[in-house]
Amino acid sequence: MSKLNQKVDSHDCLIQIVRNNLVVSNESKYINCSALEESGSINLNIEVLESDIATRINLQALRDSYINLNIEISLLKGARLEVLDESEYSKGSEIKINSELKQGSSFELYRLNKFNQSTENKYYHTCNLSRNCVFKDFNFTNGSKQMTNETIISLAHEHAKYIGSGVVITNSTNCNNTLKINHIAPSAISDCSFKAVSRGNAAVTFNGKISVDENCSNTVSNQISKGLIMDEESKVNLIPKLEINNDDVVCSHGAASGKPDENVLFYLTSRGISRKDAEKIYIQGFLGEYIYKIDNAQMQAKAKQFISQNA
Amino acid sequence: MLEIKKLSVSVEKNKILDNLDLTIGSGEVHAIMGPNGSGKSTIAHTLAGNPNYNVDSGQALFNGKDLFELDPSERSLEGLFLAFQYPIELPGVSNASYLKQILNVHRKYEGKDPIDAAEFLKILKEKSNRLNIPMEMHSRFVNTGFSGGEKKKNEVLQMDFLNPSLVIMDETDSGLDVDALRQTSEAVNQLRSSDRSFIIITHYLRLLEYIEPDYVHVFQDGKIVESGDKKLAHKIDKEGYAT
Ligand SMILES: Nc1ncnc2c1ncn2[C@@H]1O[C@H](COP(=O)(O)OP(=O)(O)O)[C@@H](O)[C@H]1O
Ligand SMILES: [Mg+2]
Hints:
The complex is a heterodimer.
Chain A: E1 3-6, E2 12-18, E3 21-25, E4 31-38, E5 41-48, E6 55-61, E7 67-75, E8 80-85, E9 93-101, E10 106-115, E11 120-129, E12 134-143, E13 146-155, E14 161-171, E15 174-183, E16 189-199, E17 203-212, E18 219-229, E19 235-244, E20 249-258, H1 262-269, H2 275-288, H3 297-310
Parallel strand pairs in A: 2-6, 5-7, 6-8, 7-9, 8-10, 9-11, 10-12, 11-13, 12-14, 13-15, 14-16, 15-17, 16-18, 17-19, 18-20
Antiparallel strand pairs in A: 1-4, 2-3, 4-5
Chain B: E1 2-11, E2 14-24, E3 29-33, H1 40-48, E4 53-62, E5 65-66, H2 72-77, E6 80-83, E7 90-94, H3 95-109, H4 117-130, E8 141-142, H5 148-162, E9 166-170, H6 178-191, E10 197-201, H7 205-210, E11 215-220, E12 223-228, H8 230-239
Helix pairs in contact in B: 5-6
The complex binds adenosine-5'-diphosphate (ADP) and magnesium ion.
Protein backbone atom coordinates (compact mmCIF):
# COMPACT_ATOMS: atom_id res chain seq x y z
CA MET A 1 0.00 0.00 0.00
CA SER A 2 1.32 3.45 -0.84
CA LYS A 3 0.04 6.94 -0.42
CA LEU A 4 1.12 10.11 -2.12
CA ASN A 5 0.29 13.70 -1.60
CA GLN A 6 2.41 16.42 -3.06
CA LYS A 7 2.24 19.87 -4.60
CA VAL A 8 4.68 21.23 -7.19
CA ASP A 9 4.62 24.49 -9.15
CA SER A 10 3.84 23.55 -12.72
CA HIS A 11 0.89 23.15 -14.97
CA ASP A 12 2.05 19.81 -16.28
CA CYS A 13 1.54 16.81 -14.19
CA LEU A 14 2.71 13.29 -14.87
CA ILE A 15 1.00 10.38 -13.20
CA GLN A 16 2.79 7.09 -13.71
CA ILE A 17 1.64 3.73 -12.57
CA VAL A 18 4.92 1.93 -11.96
CA ARG A 19 5.10 -1.58 -10.55
CA ASN A 20 2.94 -1.56 -7.46
CA ASN A 21 3.31 2.14 -6.97
CA LEU A 22 1.90 5.33 -8.37
CA VAL A 23 4.15 8.30 -9.03
CA VAL A 24 2.85 11.82 -9.37
CA SER A 25 5.47 14.26 -10.59
CA ASN A 26 5.58 17.93 -11.55
CA GLU A 27 2.36 18.44 -9.76
CA SER A 28 0.69 21.74 -10.49
CA LYS A 29 -0.24 24.08 -7.69
CA TYR A 30 -3.73 24.06 -9.08
CA ILE A 31 -4.19 20.38 -8.58
CA ASN A 32 -4.43 18.09 -5.61
CA CYS A 33 -3.75 14.44 -6.26
CA SER A 34 -3.87 11.61 -3.84
CA ALA A 35 -3.64 7.95 -4.54
CA LEU A 36 -4.23 4.85 -2.58
CA GLU A 37 -3.42 1.38 -3.71
CA GLU A 38 -5.27 -1.49 -2.23
CA SER A 39 -5.23 -5.13 -3.20
CA GLY A 40 -4.32 -4.55 -6.83
CA SER A 41 -6.66 -1.65 -7.37
CA ILE A 42 -5.53 1.96 -7.48
CA ASN A 43 -7.80 4.72 -6.29
CA LEU A 44 -6.78 8.08 -7.64
CA ASN A 45 -8.35 11.35 -6.52
CA ILE A 46 -7.82 14.44 -8.62
CA GLU A 47 -9.10 17.84 -7.60
CA VAL A 48 -8.45 20.82 -9.87
CA LEU A 49 -8.71 24.44 -8.80
CA GLU A 50 -9.40 27.43 -10.98
CA SER A 51 -6.50 28.81 -13.03
CA ASP A 52 -6.12 30.69 -16.29
CA ILE A 53 -4.02 27.92 -17.83
CA ALA A 54 -5.27 24.38 -18.05
CA THR A 55 -3.59 21.72 -16.02
CA ARG A 56 -2.52 18.81 -18.13
CA ILE A 57 -2.20 15.33 -16.73
CA ASN A 58 -0.25 12.77 -18.64
CA LEU A 59 -1.38 9.40 -17.40
CA GLN A 60 1.03 6.56 -18.06
CA ALA A 61 0.45 2.96 -17.15
CA LEU A 62 3.95 1.50 -17.01
CA ARG A 63 3.18 -1.36 -14.70
CA ASP A 64 3.52 -4.71 -16.34
CA SER A 65 0.41 -6.20 -14.82
CA TYR A 66 -3.35 -5.89 -15.06
CA ILE A 67 -4.35 -2.31 -14.28
CA ASN A 68 -7.37 -1.73 -12.13
CA LEU A 69 -7.84 1.98 -11.78
CA ASN A 70 -10.58 4.04 -10.13
CA ILE A 71 -10.34 7.75 -10.74
CA GLU A 72 -12.38 10.41 -9.04
CA ILE A 73 -12.09 13.75 -10.81
CA SER A 74 -13.46 16.92 -9.37
CA LEU A 75 -13.16 20.19 -11.27
CA LEU A 76 -13.93 23.10 -9.01
CA LYS A 77 -15.66 26.22 -10.30
CA GLY A 78 -13.90 27.55 -13.41
CA ALA A 79 -11.16 24.90 -13.33
CA ARG A 80 -9.58 23.53 -16.48
CA LEU A 81 -8.15 20.09 -16.92
CA GLU A 82 -6.70 18.15 -19.85
CA VAL A 83 -5.96 14.47 -19.47
CA LEU A 84 -3.93 12.48 -21.96
CA ASP A 85 -3.62 8.73 -21.75
CA GLU A 86 -1.53 6.94 -24.38
CA SER A 87 -0.89 3.83 -22.32
CA GLU A 88 -0.80 0.40 -23.90
CA TYR A 89 -2.07 -1.55 -20.90
CA SER A 90 -0.06 -4.58 -21.92
CA LYS A 91 -1.80 -6.97 -19.51
CA GLY A 92 -5.33 -5.60 -19.77
CA SER A 93 -7.19 -3.00 -17.81
CA GLU A 94 -10.29 -1.90 -16.03
CA ILE A 95 -10.64 1.83 -15.62
CA LYS A 96 -13.50 3.58 -13.90
CA ILE A 97 -13.72 7.33 -13.97
CA ASN A 98 -16.21 9.38 -12.09
CA SER A 99 -15.98 13.06 -12.88
CA GLU A 100 -17.81 16.01 -11.46
CA LEU A 101 -17.60 19.31 -13.31
CA LYS A 102 -18.54 22.35 -11.27
CA GLN A 103 -19.86 25.53 -12.81
CA GLY A 104 -17.85 26.98 -15.71
CA SER A 105 -15.20 24.29 -15.64
CA SER A 106 -13.77 22.60 -18.67
CA PHE A 107 -12.46 19.09 -19.12
CA GLU A 108 -10.68 17.61 -22.11
CA LEU A 109 -9.97 13.92 -22.17
CA TYR A 110 -7.81 12.28 -24.83
CA ARG A 111 -7.48 8.53 -24.76
CA LEU A 112 -5.24 7.14 -27.49
CA ASN A 113 -4.78 3.51 -26.60
CA LYS A 114 -3.35 0.73 -28.66
CA PHE A 115 -4.18 -2.34 -26.65
CA ASN A 116 -2.40 -5.65 -26.68
CA GLN A 117 -4.34 -7.97 -28.99
CA SER A 118 -4.78 -10.75 -26.43
CA THR A 119 -6.03 -8.65 -23.52
CA GLU A 120 -9.34 -7.62 -22.08
CA ASN A 121 -9.95 -3.94 -21.48
CA LYS A 122 -12.84 -2.19 -19.81
CA TYR A 123 -13.51 1.49 -19.49
CA TYR A 124 -16.36 3.20 -17.68
CA HIS A 125 -16.84 6.90 -17.34
CA THR A 126 -19.63 8.74 -15.61
CA CYS A 127 -19.54 12.50 -15.96
CA ASN A 128 -21.79 15.10 -14.46
CA LEU A 129 -21.75 18.62 -15.96
CA SER A 130 -22.96 21.78 -14.23
CA ARG A 131 -23.87 25.15 -15.71
CA ASN A 132 -21.58 26.44 -18.51
CA CYS A 133 -19.32 23.41 -18.34
CA VAL A 134 -17.64 21.89 -21.37
CA PHE A 135 -16.45 18.34 -21.66
CA LYS A 136 -14.54 17.32 -24.79
CA ASP A 137 -14.15 13.59 -24.82
CA PHE A 138 -11.96 11.95 -27.48
CA ASN A 139 -11.40 8.23 -27.42
CA PHE A 140 -9.20 6.41 -29.92
CA THR A 141 -8.66 2.73 -29.39
CA ASN A 142 -7.15 -0.12 -31.32
CA GLY A 143 -6.84 -3.76 -30.44
CA SER A 144 -7.59 -6.01 -27.47
CA LYS A 145 -9.53 -9.24 -27.57
CA GLN A 146 -12.50 -8.06 -25.62
CA MET A 147 -13.27 -4.40 -25.12
CA THR A 148 -15.95 -2.49 -23.29
CA ASN A 149 -16.35 1.28 -23.42
CA GLU A 150 -19.15 2.91 -21.54
CA THR A 151 -19.68 6.62 -21.08
CA ILE A 152 -22.62 8.17 -19.29
CA ILE A 153 -23.02 11.93 -19.50
CA SER A 154 -25.43 13.99 -17.47
CA LEU A 155 -25.98 17.51 -18.68
CA ALA A 156 -27.33 18.59 -15.36
CA HIS A 157 -27.53 22.37 -15.69
CA GLU A 158 -28.13 24.99 -18.37
CA HIS A 159 -25.53 25.60 -21.07
CA ALA A 160 -23.59 22.47 -20.33
CA LYS A 161 -21.86 21.15 -23.43
CA TYR A 162 -20.55 17.73 -24.35
CA ILE A 163 -18.49 17.05 -27.46
CA GLY A 164 -17.63 13.42 -27.82
CA SER A 165 -15.84 11.40 -30.44
CA GLY A 166 -15.18 7.70 -30.35
CA VAL A 167 -12.91 6.01 -32.84
CA VAL A 168 -12.52 2.27 -32.66
CA ILE A 169 -10.19 0.23 -34.84
CA THR A 170 -10.55 -3.45 -34.27
CA ASN A 171 -8.69 -6.51 -35.41
CA SER A 172 -10.51 -9.62 -34.25
CA THR A 173 -11.97 -7.76 -31.31
CA ASN A 174 -15.26 -8.13 -29.61
CA CYS A 175 -15.97 -4.52 -28.83
CA ASN A 176 -19.00 -3.09 -27.03
CA ASN A 177 -19.52 0.63 -26.83
CA THR A 178 -22.18 2.50 -24.97
CA LEU A 179 -22.75 6.22 -24.90
CA LYS A 180 -25.64 7.60 -22.90
CA ILE A 181 -26.35 11.29 -22.96
CA ASN A 182 -28.90 12.56 -20.50
CA HIS A 183 -30.20 16.04 -21.10
CA ILE A 184 -31.57 16.88 -17.69
CA ALA A 185 -31.48 20.69 -17.96
CA PRO A 186 -32.54 23.08 -20.76
CA SER A 187 -30.19 24.83 -23.22
CA ALA A 188 -27.55 22.13 -23.11
CA ILE A 189 -25.63 20.86 -26.14
CA SER A 190 -24.38 17.42 -27.02
CA ASP A 191 -22.53 16.57 -30.18
CA CYS A 192 -21.13 13.11 -30.62
CA SER A 193 -19.70 10.94 -33.32
CA PHE A 194 -18.71 7.31 -33.26
CA LYS A 195 -16.68 5.59 -35.93
CA ALA A 196 -15.62 1.99 -36.06
CA VAL A 197 -13.41 0.04 -38.42
CA SER A 198 -14.15 -3.63 -38.12
CA ARG A 199 -11.82 -6.23 -39.62
CA GLY A 200 -10.30 -9.62 -38.99
CA ASN A 201 -13.43 -11.30 -37.67
CA ALA A 202 -14.32 -8.46 -35.33
CA ALA A 203 -17.70 -7.52 -33.94
CA VAL A 204 -18.37 -3.95 -32.90
CA THR A 205 -21.54 -2.75 -31.22
CA PHE A 206 -22.47 0.84 -30.55
CA ASN A 207 -25.39 1.73 -28.32
CA GLY A 208 -25.94 5.44 -28.55
CA LYS A 209 -28.74 6.67 -26.36
CA ILE A 210 -29.87 10.24 -26.08
CA SER A 211 -32.60 11.18 -23.70
CA VAL A 212 -34.04 14.65 -23.40
CA ASP A 213 -36.24 15.34 -20.40
CA GLU A 214 -39.55 17.19 -20.55
CA ASN A 215 -38.20 20.45 -19.12
CA CYS A 216 -35.25 20.60 -21.54
CA SER A 217 -36.24 23.33 -24.01
CA ASN A 218 -33.63 24.74 -26.34
CA THR A 219 -31.66 21.51 -26.44
CA VAL A 220 -29.23 20.81 -29.28
CA SER A 221 -28.25 17.22 -29.72
CA ASN A 222 -26.39 15.57 -32.59
CA GLN A 223 -25.29 12.03 -32.89
CA ILE A 224 -23.71 10.27 -35.82
CA SER A 225 -22.36 6.75 -35.93
CA LYS A 226 -20.61 5.07 -38.83
CA GLY A 227 -19.11 1.65 -39.29
CA LEU A 228 -16.66 0.49 -41.91
CA ILE A 229 -16.59 -3.24 -42.52
CA MET A 230 -13.37 -4.38 -44.14
CA ASP A 231 -14.05 -8.07 -44.72
CA GLU A 232 -16.80 -10.67 -44.94
CA GLU A 233 -16.23 -12.00 -41.42
CA SER A 234 -16.51 -8.73 -39.54
CA LYS A 235 -19.56 -6.99 -38.19
CA VAL A 236 -20.72 -3.60 -37.01
CA ASN A 237 -23.99 -3.09 -35.19
CA LEU A 238 -25.05 0.51 -34.64
CA ILE A 239 -28.01 1.05 -32.34
CA PRO A 240 -29.03 4.68 -31.93
CA LYS A 241 -31.88 5.37 -29.53
CA LEU A 242 -33.60 8.67 -28.98
CA GLU A 243 -36.00 9.54 -26.23
CA ILE A 244 -37.10 13.10 -26.71
CA ASN A 245 -39.77 14.50 -24.45
CA ASN A 246 -39.65 18.16 -25.41
CA ASP A 247 -40.63 19.84 -28.72
CA ASP A 248 -38.12 22.64 -28.54
CA VAL A 249 -35.17 20.45 -29.52
CA VAL A 250 -32.80 20.57 -32.46
CA CYS A 251 -31.76 17.04 -32.92
CA SER A 252 -29.98 15.21 -35.71
CA HIS A 253 -28.88 11.65 -35.77
CA GLY A 254 -27.64 9.16 -38.28
CA ALA A 255 -26.18 5.69 -38.38
CA ALA A 256 -24.67 3.92 -41.35
CA SER A 257 -22.31 1.07 -41.89
CA GLY A 258 -20.96 -0.69 -44.92
CA LYS A 259 -17.99 -1.78 -46.91
CA PRO A 260 -15.51 0.61 -48.51
CA ASP A 261 -16.71 2.26 -51.70
CA GLU A 262 -15.06 0.36 -54.56
CA ASN A 263 -15.15 3.48 -56.75
CA VAL A 264 -12.91 5.27 -54.29
CA LEU A 265 -10.54 2.33 -54.07
CA PHE A 266 -10.35 2.17 -57.86
CA TYR A 267 -9.66 5.91 -58.03
CA LEU A 268 -6.75 5.52 -55.61
CA THR A 269 -5.31 2.47 -57.33
CA SER A 270 -5.60 4.22 -60.71
CA ARG A 271 -3.07 6.71 -59.27
CA GLY A 272 -0.51 4.00 -58.58
CA ILE A 273 -1.44 3.20 -54.98
CA SER A 274 -1.58 -0.51 -54.18
CA ARG A 275 -4.90 -2.03 -53.15
CA LYS A 276 -3.62 -2.55 -49.61
CA ASP A 277 -2.45 1.05 -49.25
CA ALA A 278 -5.65 2.30 -50.89
CA GLU A 279 -7.64 0.55 -48.15
CA LYS A 280 -5.38 2.12 -45.56
CA ILE A 281 -5.89 5.60 -47.01
CA TYR A 282 -9.61 4.92 -47.16
CA ILE A 283 -9.65 4.02 -43.46
CA GLN A 284 -7.62 7.12 -42.64
CA GLY A 285 -10.11 9.24 -44.55
CA PHE A 286 -13.04 7.55 -42.87
CA LEU A 287 -11.61 8.11 -39.40
CA GLY A 288 -10.14 11.51 -40.17
CA GLU A 289 -13.44 13.05 -41.24
CA TYR A 290 -14.19 14.65 -37.87
CA ILE A 291 -10.66 15.18 -36.66
CA TYR A 292 -11.02 18.92 -37.11
CA LYS A 293 -13.38 18.82 -34.13
CA ILE A 294 -10.28 18.49 -31.97
CA ASP A 295 -9.37 22.16 -31.69
CA ASN A 296 -6.31 21.54 -29.55
CA ALA A 297 -3.58 21.50 -32.24
CA GLN A 298 -1.18 19.27 -30.34
CA MET A 299 -3.88 16.71 -29.62
CA GLN A 300 -5.17 16.86 -33.18
CA ALA A 301 -1.67 15.99 -34.38
CA LYS A 302 -1.53 13.09 -31.92
CA ALA A 303 -4.90 11.83 -33.13
CA LYS A 304 -3.82 12.04 -36.78
CA GLN A 305 -0.69 10.12 -35.92
CA PHE A 306 -2.70 7.49 -34.07
CA ILE A 307 -4.95 7.03 -37.09
CA SER A 308 -2.10 6.78 -39.59
CA GLN A 309 -0.23 4.30 -37.36
CA ASN A 310 -3.24 2.11 -36.70
CA ALA A 311 -5.22 2.27 -39.97
CA MET B 1 2.65 3.22 -77.34
CA LEU B 2 -0.78 1.56 -77.24
CA GLU B 3 -2.16 -1.15 -79.45
CA ILE B 4 -5.75 -2.29 -78.91
CA LYS B 5 -6.75 -5.38 -80.87
CA LYS B 6 -10.22 -6.85 -81.26
CA LEU B 7 -11.31 -5.66 -77.83
CA SER B 8 -14.74 -6.63 -76.54
CA VAL B 9 -15.89 -5.43 -73.13
CA SER B 10 -19.05 -5.99 -71.16
CA VAL B 11 -20.56 -4.42 -68.08
CA GLU B 12 -22.89 -6.57 -66.02
CA LYS B 13 -23.36 -8.98 -68.94
CA ASN B 14 -24.13 -6.14 -71.39
CA LYS B 15 -21.73 -6.03 -74.27
CA ILE B 16 -20.49 -2.45 -74.64
CA LEU B 17 -17.31 -2.56 -76.71
CA ASP B 18 -17.37 -4.72 -79.79
CA ASN B 19 -14.18 -5.84 -81.51
CA LEU B 20 -12.45 -2.49 -81.13
CA ASP B 21 -9.12 -1.82 -82.84
CA LEU B 22 -7.10 1.30 -82.10
CA THR B 23 -3.40 2.03 -82.35
CA ILE B 24 -1.81 5.07 -80.78
CA GLY B 25 1.76 6.00 -81.61
CA SER B 26 4.24 7.89 -79.43
CA GLY B 27 3.50 11.59 -79.17
CA GLU B 28 0.15 11.30 -80.95
CA VAL B 29 -3.05 12.97 -79.85
CA HIS B 30 -6.22 11.04 -80.65
CA ALA B 31 -9.65 12.53 -80.11
CA ILE B 32 -12.63 10.27 -79.52
CA MET B 33 -16.03 11.76 -80.16
CA GLY B 34 -19.39 10.08 -80.06
CA PRO B 35 -22.92 10.27 -78.69
CA ASN B 36 -23.78 9.62 -75.05
CA GLY B 37 -23.69 5.96 -74.16
CA SER B 38 -21.56 4.97 -77.15
CA GLY B 39 -18.85 3.44 -74.94
CA LYS B 40 -16.30 6.23 -74.64
CA SER B 41 -15.95 6.03 -70.86
CA THR B 42 -15.99 2.25 -71.13
CA ILE B 43 -12.81 2.27 -73.19
CA ALA B 44 -11.22 4.72 -70.72
CA HIS B 45 -12.11 2.65 -67.64
CA THR B 46 -11.19 -0.63 -69.29
CA LEU B 47 -7.73 0.66 -70.11
CA ALA B 48 -7.31 1.99 -66.56
CA GLY B 49 -8.40 -1.38 -65.11
CA ASN B 50 -11.75 -0.63 -63.48
CA PRO B 51 -12.93 -4.04 -62.20
CA ASN B 52 -16.56 -3.27 -63.19
CA TYR B 53 -15.61 -3.62 -66.84
CA ASN B 54 -15.02 -7.17 -68.03
CA VAL B 55 -12.66 -7.82 -70.90
CA ASP B 56 -14.38 -10.60 -72.85
CA SER B 57 -11.81 -10.88 -75.59
CA GLY B 58 -9.03 -8.98 -77.28
CA GLN B 59 -5.77 -7.47 -76.25
CA ALA B 60 -4.15 -4.19 -75.33
CA LEU B 61 -0.40 -3.76 -75.50
CA PHE B 62 1.01 -0.76 -73.65
CA ASN B 63 4.65 -0.14 -74.46
CA GLY B 64 4.87 -3.82 -75.36
CA LYS B 65 3.32 -5.02 -72.09
CA ASP B 66 -0.02 -6.83 -71.89
CA LEU B 67 -2.11 -4.17 -70.16
CA PHE B 68 -4.73 -6.62 -68.93
CA GLU B 69 -2.10 -8.55 -66.98
CA LEU B 70 -1.42 -5.49 -64.84
CA ASP B 71 -3.57 -4.32 -61.93
CA PRO B 72 -4.73 -0.67 -61.94
CA SER B 73 -1.89 0.58 -59.75
CA GLU B 74 0.73 -1.12 -61.94
CA ARG B 75 -0.81 0.47 -65.04
CA SER B 76 -0.45 3.86 -63.38
CA LEU B 77 3.12 3.20 -62.34
CA GLU B 78 3.90 2.10 -65.90
CA GLY B 79 2.71 5.49 -67.14
CA LEU B 80 -1.01 5.32 -67.87
CA PHE B 81 -3.21 8.10 -66.53
CA LEU B 82 -6.98 8.48 -66.66
CA ALA B 83 -8.52 11.88 -66.00
CA PHE B 84 -11.97 10.83 -64.77
CA GLN B 85 -15.19 12.15 -66.28
CA TYR B 86 -16.62 12.04 -62.76
CA PRO B 87 -13.75 12.46 -60.28
CA ILE B 88 -14.28 10.62 -57.02
CA GLU B 89 -14.64 12.32 -53.64
CA LEU B 90 -12.44 11.15 -50.80
CA PRO B 91 -13.55 12.74 -47.52
CA GLY B 92 -11.14 12.85 -44.60
CA VAL B 93 -7.97 13.10 -46.70
CA SER B 94 -6.63 16.53 -47.61
CA ASN B 95 -5.89 17.16 -51.26
CA ALA B 96 -2.30 18.16 -50.43
CA SER B 97 -1.59 14.96 -48.56
CA TYR B 98 -3.25 12.92 -51.32
CA LEU B 99 -1.18 14.57 -54.05
CA LYS B 100 1.98 13.99 -52.05
CA GLN B 101 1.14 10.33 -51.56
CA ILE B 102 0.44 9.65 -55.23
CA LEU B 103 3.61 11.51 -56.20
CA ASN B 104 5.70 9.54 -53.71
CA VAL B 105 4.38 6.17 -54.79
CA HIS B 106 5.54 7.01 -58.34
CA ARG B 107 8.88 8.31 -57.06
CA LYS B 108 9.37 5.09 -55.14
CA TYR B 109 8.67 3.06 -58.28
CA GLU B 110 11.34 5.11 -60.05
CA GLY B 111 13.75 4.42 -57.20
CA LYS B 112 13.63 7.95 -55.83
CA ASP B 113 13.32 9.07 -52.21
CA PRO B 114 10.06 10.63 -50.99
CA ILE B 115 9.89 14.31 -51.87
CA ASP B 116 10.79 16.68 -49.05
CA ALA B 117 8.09 18.97 -47.71
CA ALA B 118 9.54 22.27 -48.98
CA GLU B 119 10.19 20.93 -52.47
CA PHE B 120 6.66 19.52 -52.64
CA LEU B 121 5.15 22.83 -51.62
CA LYS B 122 7.19 24.63 -54.27
CA ILE B 123 6.04 22.26 -57.04
CA LEU B 124 2.48 22.33 -55.78
CA LYS B 125 2.43 26.14 -55.94
CA GLU B 126 3.96 26.22 -59.39
CA LYS B 127 1.62 23.63 -60.89
CA SER B 128 -1.50 25.00 -59.16
CA ASN B 129 -0.65 28.47 -60.36
CA ARG B 130 -0.50 27.29 -63.95
CA LEU B 131 -4.05 25.92 -63.64
CA ASN B 132 -5.25 28.88 -61.61
CA ILE B 133 -6.01 26.61 -58.65
CA PRO B 134 -6.00 28.46 -55.30
CA MET B 135 -3.66 26.89 -52.70
CA GLU B 136 -6.58 26.90 -50.28
CA MET B 137 -8.15 24.07 -52.31
CA HIS B 138 -5.38 21.71 -51.19
CA SER B 139 -6.32 21.92 -47.54
CA ARG B 140 -9.80 20.70 -48.40
CA PHE B 141 -10.64 17.00 -48.64
CA VAL B 142 -9.97 15.40 -52.05
CA ASN B 143 -12.67 16.51 -54.53
CA THR B 144 -15.12 16.79 -51.64
CA GLY B 145 -17.46 19.70 -52.20
CA PHE B 146 -15.33 20.84 -55.15
CA SER B 147 -17.20 22.50 -57.99
CA GLY B 148 -17.34 20.66 -61.32
CA GLY B 149 -14.56 22.85 -62.68
CA GLU B 150 -12.35 22.41 -59.60
CA LYS B 151 -12.67 18.64 -59.87
CA LYS B 152 -11.61 18.68 -63.51
CA LYS B 153 -8.67 20.97 -62.81
CA ASN B 154 -7.64 18.66 -59.99
CA GLU B 155 -7.53 15.78 -62.49
CA VAL B 156 -5.22 17.75 -64.77
CA LEU B 157 -3.09 18.66 -61.76
CA GLN B 158 -2.71 14.99 -60.84
CA MET B 159 -1.72 14.23 -64.41
CA ASP B 160 0.91 16.95 -64.22
CA PHE B 161 2.30 15.43 -60.99
CA LEU B 162 2.49 11.87 -62.26
CA ASN B 163 4.20 12.56 -65.56
CA PRO B 164 2.42 9.79 -67.51
CA SER B 165 3.31 8.57 -70.98
CA LEU B 166 -0.30 7.87 -71.98
CA VAL B 167 -3.04 10.23 -70.88
CA ILE B 168 -6.74 9.49 -71.28
CA MET B 169 -8.90 12.54 -70.72
CA ASP B 170 -12.56 11.64 -70.34
CA GLU B 171 -14.65 14.75 -71.00
CA THR B 172 -12.24 16.90 -69.04
CA ASP B 173 -13.69 19.95 -70.81
CA SER B 174 -17.24 19.51 -69.57
CA GLY B 175 -17.82 21.64 -66.50
CA LEU B 176 -15.04 24.08 -67.34
CA ASP B 177 -15.80 27.69 -68.16
CA VAL B 178 -14.04 29.41 -71.06
CA ASP B 179 -11.09 30.67 -68.98
CA ALA B 180 -10.65 27.37 -67.19
CA LEU B 181 -10.80 25.54 -70.52
CA ARG B 182 -8.04 27.73 -71.89
CA GLN B 183 -5.87 27.31 -68.78
CA THR B 184 -6.23 23.55 -68.66
CA SER B 185 -5.65 23.26 -72.42
CA GLU B 186 -2.49 25.34 -72.11
CA ALA B 187 -1.32 23.11 -69.27
CA VAL B 188 -2.01 20.04 -71.40
CA ASN B 189 -0.26 21.54 -74.42
CA GLN B 190 2.83 22.20 -72.30
CA LEU B 191 2.86 18.50 -71.47
CA ARG B 192 2.68 17.44 -75.10
CA SER B 193 5.88 15.79 -76.18
CA SER B 194 7.16 13.18 -78.58
CA ASP B 195 7.12 10.50 -75.88
CA ARG B 196 3.69 11.27 -74.43
CA SER B 197 0.41 10.32 -76.11
CA PHE B 198 -3.12 11.49 -75.43
CA ILE B 199 -6.60 10.06 -75.89
CA ILE B 200 -9.01 12.95 -75.59
CA ILE B 201 -12.66 12.08 -75.19
CA THR B 202 -14.93 15.04 -75.84
CA HIS B 203 -18.23 16.13 -77.29
CA TYR B 204 -17.03 19.53 -78.29
CA LEU B 205 -14.93 21.04 -80.99
CA ARG B 206 -13.91 23.89 -78.69
CA LEU B 207 -11.45 21.71 -76.74
CA LEU B 208 -9.93 20.41 -79.96
CA GLU B 209 -9.37 23.98 -81.08
CA TYR B 210 -7.04 24.40 -78.11
CA ILE B 211 -5.51 20.93 -78.13
CA GLU B 212 -5.05 20.00 -81.77
CA PRO B 213 -5.53 16.28 -82.39
CA ASP B 214 -3.59 14.26 -84.93
CA TYR B 215 -6.51 11.86 -85.35
CA VAL B 216 -10.24 12.00 -84.69
CA HIS B 217 -12.36 8.87 -84.20
CA VAL B 218 -16.12 8.70 -84.05
CA PHE B 219 -17.56 6.14 -81.66
CA GLN B 220 -20.95 4.58 -82.03
CA ASP B 221 -22.36 1.50 -80.30
CA GLY B 222 -18.97 0.48 -78.97
CA LYS B 223 -17.20 0.68 -82.30
CA ILE B 224 -15.18 3.22 -84.23
CA VAL B 225 -17.41 4.09 -87.18
CA GLU B 226 -15.26 6.76 -88.73
CA SER B 227 -11.68 7.99 -88.40
CA GLY B 228 -10.01 11.01 -89.86
CA ASP B 229 -8.05 14.11 -89.02
CA LYS B 230 -9.13 17.36 -87.40
CA LYS B 231 -11.55 18.10 -90.24
CA LEU B 232 -13.75 15.24 -89.05
CA ALA B 233 -14.28 17.09 -85.76
CA HIS B 234 -15.45 20.15 -87.68
CA LYS B 235 -17.83 18.05 -89.70
CA ILE B 236 -19.32 16.51 -86.56
CA ASP B 237 -19.62 19.91 -84.97
CA LYS B 238 -21.66 21.07 -87.96
CA GLU B 239 -23.64 17.97 -88.82
CA GLY B 240 -23.89 15.96 -85.60
CA TYR B 241 -23.33 12.20 -85.31
CA ALA B 242 -26.22 11.16 -87.57
CA THR B 243 -24.96 8.92 -90.34
N1 LIG C 1 -21.65 0.52 -64.42
C1 LIG C 1 -22.49 0.29 -65.45
N2 LIG C 1 -23.52 -0.56 -65.31
C2 LIG C 1 -24.37 -0.81 -66.34
N3 LIG C 1 -24.26 -0.24 -67.54
C3 LIG C 1 -23.25 0.61 -67.74
C4 LIG C 1 -22.30 0.92 -66.71
N4 LIG C 1 -21.41 1.79 -67.20
C5 LIG C 1 -21.78 2.01 -68.48
N5 LIG C 1 -22.87 1.31 -68.81
C6 LIG C 1 -23.55 1.32 -70.10
O1 LIG C 1 -22.59 1.19 -71.11
C7 LIG C 1 -22.90 2.01 -72.21
C8 LIG C 1 -21.72 2.88 -72.54
O2 LIG C 1 -21.50 3.77 -71.48
P1 LIG C 1 -20.29 4.79 -71.43
O3 LIG C 1 -19.05 4.10 -71.85
O4 LIG C 1 -20.28 5.43 -70.11
O5 LIG C 1 -20.73 5.84 -72.55
P2 LIG C 1 -20.17 7.28 -72.93
O6 LIG C 1 -19.00 7.57 -72.07
O7 LIG C 1 -19.82 7.17 -74.36
O8 LIG C 1 -21.29 8.23 -72.71
C9 LIG C 1 -24.16 2.77 -71.83
O9 LIG C 1 -25.24 2.13 -72.44
C10 LIG C 1 -24.23 2.65 -70.35
O10 LIG C 1 -25.55 2.64 -69.91
MG1 LIG D 1 -18.64 9.03 -70.64
